[in-house]
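Your task
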Amino acid sequence: MNTSINWHKLDHKKYADETGLLGRLCRLVAWPPGQRQQVRKQAIELVELARAQQRRKGMMESFLAEFGLSNKEGLALMCLAEALLRVPDEKTADALIAEKIASGNWAAHAGQSDSLLVNASTWGLMLTGRLLDGGQRVENDIPGFMGRLVSRLGEPAIRAAMLQAMRIMGEQFVLGRDIKSAIKRGSKLDSADARAIFSFDMLGEGARTRADAERYFERYANAIHEVGKARGPGTVREVSGVSVKLSALHPRYEAVKQQRVEDELYPKLLELAKLAKGYDIGFCLDAEEADRLVLSLGLLERLAAEEALAGWNGLGLAIQAYQKRALAVIANVQQLARQTKRQIMVRLVKGAYWDTEIKHAHETGVVDFPVWTTKQATDLNFLACAEALIAQPQAIYAQFATHNAHSLAAVQAMASTAGVEIEFQRLHGMGEALYTAADQTFGSTRCRIYAPVGSHDDLLPYLVRRLLENGANTSFVHSFLDEKVPAAEVAGDPFCDVSTLA
């Protein structure tokens, strides 16, 4: 089956006029004032209800509440965690630890968290800081014998302890070390009313060698088999699926290597898709960096046109709303779905590589960024994309990944008005209180859990990425946790002050 979509026309340079684009987005989501006010009111109620529940926060949420990027200690931890991933020798790692840990006022955070693990980590950092500054600072509540004990261990032990502590914390955000343990743990999240459904993500960064790619391929194939065998009753929408990172399946997943990627990667990708179809589970192509978008879309097109995959509605794609091309991508994916007579699952996310995209644009000297440069613009584009997805339910099964109360309330209002069935998604270890509040406000909302699965070697990069993504002052997750921030401010309306966004 042939399609006629020219993905290369999606060059982001055609979307360089931010002011014009923002005006277009506002027209696309031209709600009457009454609807905007109602959505904002519901968003505020969601924040207040979630806070009022006083549920025990998850580890990620507790950590962000204590060590966000708004204080020196939080910044030190993030810099240290990111640097330790790249430091090749122990001597340099020890020097980094000495610089970052000894400079923090860790005592100010002692006992402040509602998480035992976070508090224990804080005490450890206090001890470490005392050791590394030569013992000159004396913290009131640190037993002297513990300080002497730690002082005998030395910096190598501190380095090992910090890495282990970060692994332990990372495990709170990963459903299991392998797919079998993840499925088993996930089954315990079933409630009396519904079975928990997941999109399992086999953790791993991009492949660097053929051996890496082969290992990841086997991991994905095994995951599909295990998820399929554990499949419960229901349509592909109602059961767990698997997400696949295409750059993990080929060591040169780059636009300039398009022909090589298609020759070498596509047969393996098709094999995985056939496995997923055999079990009738979801198979989502995860989002990559902007310069790989056209490459991913071309592979999606080939899969959608495969006769061997006809009649299966589990093929999916993640689209990043922070990309200026997102609306054009959606229009083309809808066209692809119509041409291939299938319904494609589309997971709309805000995006997780913002810093990388900005830095890469600076390095290459392009005149404009491929992504929106403000959070409000991304939130507004998310709503415009949501409206476009909901408008064509025959072509798209819309999935909305968000921890933002206003985005949630707005999408729910759109879907309800259109009478379209959708689902939401949240990260494992985050957002539970928000979606519990949503269930109480809107009735039962279908929420799929994006569940990372991986070993110790894969945890640290994922942890650092999530902490950097959600620890910024502008992050909804960070503000949502802070009751000193008014609920009305947390549930901000992206339509407000649009003229200042460009």
Q: What stands out?
A: Residues 33-52 form the longest helix (20 residues). Residues 87 and 93 are 6 Å apart (CA to CA). The two ends are 42 Å apart (CA to CA).
